[in-house]
């Protein structure tokens, strides 16, 4: 008959005696999906995609480069034809508009960037994983808007200031102006705000259409083609009534120093531009909630 030794009875296994203490389980607050965490996720996406960071940097550099080129032409340092024509096509343009002339091209880049920031996820199917992690969906849209608008706002305001200062330096005394002049600081800072808003417009259009090529076409047409066609096709009365309320025209109202009969006032232009963004984002929010990913 087998005999069990007394020492073996009730003696704990030394391997179990030194067992790790139980780990505390994660609380619901630690696992909750919050707007702050979604913003952090979208920020990681934005800075992880190299093409998006390159596009942002190129937009800022073009803003500065085109302003410097326009100032060089206006000052006569660069001849457009013949022996230094002395001002060329910018001779009658105010100094601030010369320095900020790169806004027209830059708005296309940031608009396309806004489209890509959301339409790429629909194109590659990643949006399903995103919405699975954030079932309420709308925090994803708000996070994309906050990340892109915040990044572009900082970058474009700095680029606008650099473009203005460099342009005025090239124009030289007698042709230049200062930030303290009437309406100049508003125009310079307004250009940065306008470009950040165009990025938001791209996000909204991309969310509405969910197709990269189609959304980019709509953004380009809205900013460049529609205003030109309106001036050519519409009767004069209709043109002066409708054109000032287009997004690009509303933006020009608060990004330019000198007013125009075809533009709204700075405050009214800013209100109309913000109104466009609110309407487009509201439409995008409704469609994101109603449609399948």
Question: What would your notes on this structure say?
Answer:
This protein is globular. The protein has 13 helices and no strands. 34% of the residues are buried. With 293 residues, it is mainly alpha-helical. It is 70% helix and 0% strand. The longest helix has 34 residues, at 138-171. The chain has a domain at 36-55 and 94-160 and 179-290. Residues 1-12 and 83-88 have low confidence and may be disordered. It starts with 13 loop residues before the first helix and ends with a helix.
Record keyword descriptors for this entry.
293 residues; 70% helix; disordered N terminus
Give the arrangement of secondary structure elements.
Elements: H1 14-17, H2 28-31, H3 35-48, H4 50-75, H5 95-99, H6 103-124, H7 126-133, H8 138-171, H9 184-209, H10 212-233, H11 236-242, H12 247-255, H13 266-290
* Cα distance spanning the termini: 72 Å
Principal-axis shape equals: globular
Order of SSEs: HHHHHHHHHHHHH
Broad structural category: mainly alpha
Fraction of helical residues = over 70%
As a whole number of angstroms, the C-alpha radius of gyration is: 28 Å
User: Uncertain segments of ≥5 residues (pLDDT<50)?
Assistant: 1-12, 83-88
Estimated share of beta-strand residues: under 5%
**In DSSP terms, counting alpha (H) and pi (I) runs of 4 or more, how many helices?**
13
Average pLDDT number: 84
Main β-sheet, in a few words?
A: none
Counted beta strands = 0
């Amino acid at each position: 008959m087998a005999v069990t030794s007394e020492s073996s009875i009730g003696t704990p296994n030394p391997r179990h005696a030194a067992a790790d203490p139980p780990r505390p389980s994660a609380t619901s607050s630690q696992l909750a999906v919050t707007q702050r965490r979604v913003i952090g996720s979208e920020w990681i996406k934005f800075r992880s995609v190299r093409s998006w960071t390159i596009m942002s940097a190129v937009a800022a550099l073009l803003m500065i480069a085109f302003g410097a080129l326009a100032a060089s032409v206006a000052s006569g340092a660069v001849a457009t034809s013949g022996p230094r024509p002395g001002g060329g096509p910018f001779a009658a343009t105010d100094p601030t508009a010369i320095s900020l002339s790169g806004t027209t091209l830059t708005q296309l880049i940031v608009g396309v960037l806004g489209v890509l920031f959301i339409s790429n996820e629909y194109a590659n199917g990643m949006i399903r994983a995103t919405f699975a992690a954030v079932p309420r969906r709308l925090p994803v849209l708000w996070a994309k808007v906050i990340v892109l608008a915040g990044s572009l706002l900082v970058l474009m305001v700095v680029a606008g200031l650099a473009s203005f200062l460099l342009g005025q330096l090239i124009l030289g005394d007698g042709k230049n102006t200062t930030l303290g002049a009437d309406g100049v600081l508003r125009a310079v800072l307004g250009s940065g705000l306008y470009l950040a808003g165009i990025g938001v417009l791209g996000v909204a259009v991309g969310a509405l259409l969910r197709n990269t090529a189609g959304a980019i076409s709509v953004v380009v047409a809205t900013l460049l083609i529609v205003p030109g066609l309106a001036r050519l096709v519409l009767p004069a009365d209709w043109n002066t009534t409708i054109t000032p309320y287009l997004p690009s025209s509303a933006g020009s109202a608060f990004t330019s120093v000198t007013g125009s009969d075809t533009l709204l006032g700075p405050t009214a232009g800013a209100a109309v531009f913000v109104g466009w963004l609110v309407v487009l984002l509201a439409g995008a929010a409704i469609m994101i909630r109603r449609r399948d990913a």
